[in-house]
Amino acid sequence: MLNQILWEILDWVALKWNGVSKPSSEDWIGVYSPSNVNFQETSPVKFQYANFSSNYIATGSGSIQFRLVNMHADYIFAFMRNGTSYPILSGFSNVVTFQNVDQPNQGHLSLTGDPTEMRLSWASGYQTSVQSVEWGTSSGVYTNSQVASNWTYTSSELCGNPAQSFGWRAPGFLNTAIMTGLVPGQQYYFSFGSDTTGWSLESSFYSAPIPSQKVAVEFIAYGDMGKAEQDGSLEHWEENPSLNTTRNVLAQIDEIDLVLHIGDISYAVGYSAQWDEFMDQIQPVATRVPYMTCDGNHERDFPNSGSYYNGTDSGGECGVPYRNRFLMPTSAPDNTWYSIDYGCVHFIFMSTEHYYHKGSPQYEFLENDLANVDRTVTPWVVLSGHRPMYIDSMNNSTFTGDLTVARELRQVLEDLMVQYGVDVAFWGHHHSYQRTCHVYRQQCYLSGFPVHLVIGMAGMSLSLNTAPTPPDWLMFLDVEEYGYSRVSANATHFHFKYFGNTSGLKDQLILTK
Q: Of 107, 257, 287, 405, which residue is 20 to 30 A from 174 by alpha carbon distance?
């Protein structure tokens, strides 16, 4: 049925086939990794309908180019008939592999809270070797090195399906090392890997500045982005607008200090390979600036797993892939709340997916953290969490509805935020852009109270369930375009801008002190 893979150009592979009798629009090609999977019991990494190739229906032959991500295992292509619900295997290709299947990749930076440090995390294959990061202040001249710790996780650590069954794929080794002794605000060049597995291409970053009101900060923030295939292939979900968001962020990478991703990170939801796809998509950004995250419902929630909301939104992941891949400066792996200072801004990241009420460890953290902010050092306080405290939505369902959760968040946390002068709150979850007035208990004020910004418009399909009559506290709403936000902050001004991916600047806000 399938002839063979004819050639590999970098990470693109051309697949050709012929001789299909009675070709149908229901015929499709699955991309599987590793090559020894059971096609009937394993989800493909991705797939494409055979009629994506022009003239397939008329001729029974065709060709498609696929882009493959190095997931540290080989690949195979399967020709399936009878649609996706009850597929019938009709043929498969030869095995395809990368020249260096153990190549270290998926690099991403994150802050530790110490401006003399920067954490680097990455993935590598199953070749057992000591992985390291090497760095220095000149390109190609690495005067420092740090051995990485490495680990993996297994399907038994997950909570349910599809993560433990047809969505499972072993992640290889995950590695992390902290670069120490950095001079705050200095540019560093680095590479990671080993002589056995190979080394990554060089990248560079600027170390964090010493926290100070005199140090301006430039950052991009968004939520609910996900990933998509550059070759147009299909997955269980595709967040195609995420490609534009990622490109727009990358185009500004020399102008920004860090990126905030406020929950619903990859939308893998139990399909392990999608984490590899997502990490590949953000690597050009995340190896240049720290990529700081908090968890959302599609990373954490699963019944009886310790999440506050017992839905199945994580697809059985219950936070395990997320917290193994994104090592934030938290007090414990599943206590996914933390804070950092960067220049003139104090950033707080909470988890709306864990219990946050009075008496809980998270509430105590938030109260203590807010009480100890030194506003002479970091005059701006930004709090971020996934599910929004203020939201224009029609979802008022019991317990997990947008409006239900918003009321609960306000009841528990709004007075605390006002007491300690939170300036801005970033939220996601609702796939829209929304900006409030300075608001407290649903009443608008000229100043003195937080502005809430919903920025869940980075990739996942837009949420159109807004009220016919918007609430009085809503100043701006956009459910028509995907995009991202960018902030410039200094000692006296906090300039927030919202950009559509194609239309440019659509809204802005300037706060002053």
A: 257
Q: How many CB atoms lie within 10 A of CB 128?
A: 11
How many Å separate Cα 406 from the centre of its chain? 23
Spatial separation of the C-alpha atoms in residues 208 and 190, rounded to whole Å: 16
List the one residue out of 69, 66, 70 whose CA is nearest residue 101.
70
Write 85-91 long-range contacts (CB < 8 A, 24+): 87/28, 87/30, 87/39, 87/40, 89/39, 89/40, 90/1, 90/20, 90/27, 91/1, 91/2, 91/17
SS (H, E, C) 144-207: EEEECEEECCCHHHCCCCCCCCCCCCCCCEEEEEEECCCCCCCEEEEEEEECCCEECCCEEEEC
DSSP line for 432-497: SEEEEEEEETTEEESSSS-EEEEE--SSSPPP----SS--TTEEEEE-S--EEEEEEE-SSEEEEE
Q: Is the pTM of this model over 0.85?
A: yes
Q: Where do we find the tokens 């797993």?
A: 305
β-bridge pairing 258-262 and 291-294: parallel
Q: CA 89 to CA 30: how far, in whole Å? A: 10
Predicted confidence (pLDDT) at residue 462 exceeds the cutoff of 50? yes
Q: Return the biggest CA–CA distance within the chain.
A: 75
Say if strands 198-199 and 187-194 run parallel, antiparallel, or are unpaired: antiparallel
Separation between Cα atoms, residue 21 and residue 101, nearest integer Å: 36
Please give the Cα distance from 136 to 284 (Å, whole number): 19
**Residue pLDDT, tens place only, 387-439:** 999 999 999 999 999 999 999 999 999 999 999 999 999 999 999 999 999 99
- What's the burial of 16, exposed, middle or buried (CB within 10 Å: 0-12/13-18/19+)? middle
How many Cβ atoms sit within 10 Å of the Cβ of residue 7? 8
- Could you tell me the sign of the dihedral formed by the alpha carbons of 210, 214, 218, 219, in that order? positive
DSSP state of 208: P
Q: Report CA dihedral (318, 324, 330, 333) to the nearest 10 degrees.
A: 60
The span from the first CA to the last CA of the chain, in angstroms, equals 69
Q: Cα separation of 21 and 403, whole Å?
A: 54
Q: Is 315 left (phi over 0), alpha (psi -120 to 50) or beta?
A: left
- Alpha-carbon distance of 378 to 319, in angstroms, equals 31
Positive or negative torsion for Cα 49, 51, 61, 82: positive
Q: Give Cα 127 to chain centroid, integer Å.
A: 27
